[in-house]
Amino acid sequence: MNNITLILYVATGLSALFWFADLLYFKPGRKQALKNAEISHRIPLTRKEKEAIMNSNGFISSIASCFPVLFVVLIVRSFCYEPFRIPSASMMPTLLRGDFVIVEKFRYGLRNPLNNETWIKTSSPQRGEIVVFKYPEDTKIDYIKRIIGLPGDTVVFNKGELFIKPAGESNYTRISAVEDPASQQMWTAVNLSYTSEHGLTGTEDLLGYKHKIMHDSSANIVEKFYVQGDRHYGEWVVPEGSYFVMGDNREHSRDSRFWGFVPDKYLVGRAVGIWFSGTFDSGIRIDRLGGLE
Predict the structure, then answer these.
(1) Residue (of 84, 74, 72, 68) closest to 5 by Cα position
(2) List 90, 196, 253, 256, catalytic entry
């Protein structure tokens, strides 16, 4: 549970206490005070005078009035949609540093917001979907990557090239970048201001799912890959109930190649759109708003 969610839970809980206290104790007292005032006055009370009596516990009633709003926000954030900010360039060019995405939390199931345990499963992640999940090496951190391998798939990453053998099949398919129809060349230059944002973009055909990727030929991967049992270096078989994920910015993404698989129980939801985008150095990017591919 991140800090914002924790603060929301605490605020909702405190406002609920004030709401119930006001409903069961303070509000009946104010109603009785209003009734006594109406009896004792020879002329009817004005609207302003009635409001003054009913709002006599102003601090308590003000906090109590926040409860319904906070409760609705908590329900929506816990079970329906939750916003996330993209802090790095690991998903460029699909997602830029400073993009704020909306995540559909019920996509893969109704989950316990406290421990992410699945109560009701709705669907399974599909290859190519962009997912938010709890980082397996530190579940307090949320990560966002694209699903490359499904349970039973064999994934190979060798010298910058990606190969996938889907579950139940005997042959590998080389996942290659194809020329973007919107440009005259296979790769297009991107922002050079940041090292991790330096590269060329293209379109990858991920076994029928086409999406943008970024390639930086000048970058060297220095960290060793995750080794799965006695498998060859750079080869992984995705276990049941888990997924192999990668960033679209292949040379600048720390993903399943380095720390392994994402268990289903760590999935938070599917990223479905960008609702805001901007950084101090780039300003607000209105053209970024919309759905994700």
Answers:
(1) 74
(2) 90
Give Cα separations from 222 to 188, 241, 246, 275 (angstroms). Answer: 25, 29, 17, 35
Could you read off the pLDDT tens digit of each residue along the chain, which spans 293 residues?
A: 667 788 888 999 999 998 898 888 887 877 777 778 777 776 677 777 766 666 666 677 788 889 999 999 999 999 999 999 999 999 999 999 999 999 999 999 999 888 888 999 999 999 999 999 999 999 999 999 999 999 999 999 998 899 999 999 999 999 988 766 554 444 445 556 677 888 888 899 999 999 999 888 888 888 999 999 999 999 999 999 999 999 999 999 999 999 999 999 999 999 999 999 998 887 899 999 998 87
CATH class of the 86-291 domain in this structure = mainly beta
31 flagged as catalytic: no
Which of these is catalytic: 78, 88, 134, 145?
Answer: 145
| pTM for the whole structure | 0.85
How is residue 260 written in tokens?
A: 């392994």
**Domain boundaries of the chain, sorted by first residue:** 3-81, 86-291
Q: How many residues does the chain have?
A: 293
Q: Is 145 a catalytic residue?
A: yes
